[in-house]
Write a structure and sequence with these properties.
The chain is mainly beta. Helix content is 0%, strand content 34%.
Length: 207
């Protein structure tokens, strides 16, 4: 394993850390988690057990990633982001006589963060969601619904407000839209996209 792990980091048994990944101070990675190649995990981040993180991801400081979260390649998770995985959280049984286990059960819900997505600083991500490919979540957002590919979403509760390119540049705000069937070209990188209702697709060069 050709990874750089700070001496204060705690990596539990059964974890797989990819080549050229850097894990900084006071990070805690629980057992059986996989982190891919060329990733950065910022200081004081906690990654729960069984989490899967792809290649070339940036996870900034003080992030909490809970069990049942999958993060694909090229995702950026900014500082202070919190994931959740239980829609009906309780500490104890209804009669308060038994402490509930922290192991996954029938109420645990998985969340998928798709390739290229960005989650802004301080966002809170609800359970059972899909954050789409190259989507961008604004800082401080409270995400309670899935976000489609290439959407810019922000607010509390979070809602889609526009379209973003792979390079991160804003293509259009929905409030400025002339209709629900539109084409966009990124002024920064030249990539082209088509919108049909709320579905954004990237046009392949030459099509």
């Amino acid at each position: 394993m050709n990874a750089r792990i700070h001496p204060t980091a705690m990596i539990e048994d059964g974890c797989k850390i990819g080549n050229e990944t850097a894990i900084w101070d006071h990070v805690h990675v629980r057992h059986d988690t996989r982190i891919g190649e060329q990733c950065i995990v910022g200081g004081r981040t906690i990654i729960a057990y069984g989490v899967s993180i792809g290649n070339r991801c940036k996870i900034n400081s003080n992030v909490y990633i809970c069990t049942a979260v999958t993060i694909e390649d090229g995702v950026m998770i900014s500082a202070g982001v919190i994931f959740t995985n239980d829609r009906f959280p309780r500490a104890a049984s209804p009669d308060l006589t038994t402490l509930r286990s922290s192991e996954p059960d029938e109420s645990t819900e998985s969340t998928l963060v798709c390739s290229g997505a960005t989650i802004g600083a301080g966002a809170i991500i609800g359970s059972g969601l899909r954050i789409g490919r190259w989507a961008m979540i604004g800082m401080g957002a409270i995400v309670t619904k899935s976000i489609p590919d290439f959407h810019l979403a922000m607010g509390a509760p979070c809602r889609s407000v526009g379209v973003v390119c792979r390079c991160g540049r804003l293509l259009a705000m929905f409030s400025d839209s002339q209709g629900r069937d539109e084409d966009y070209t990124c002024a920064e990188c030249g990539r082209q996209f088509h919108r049909s209702e709320q579905v954004i697709v990237e046009r392949v060069s030459g099509c």
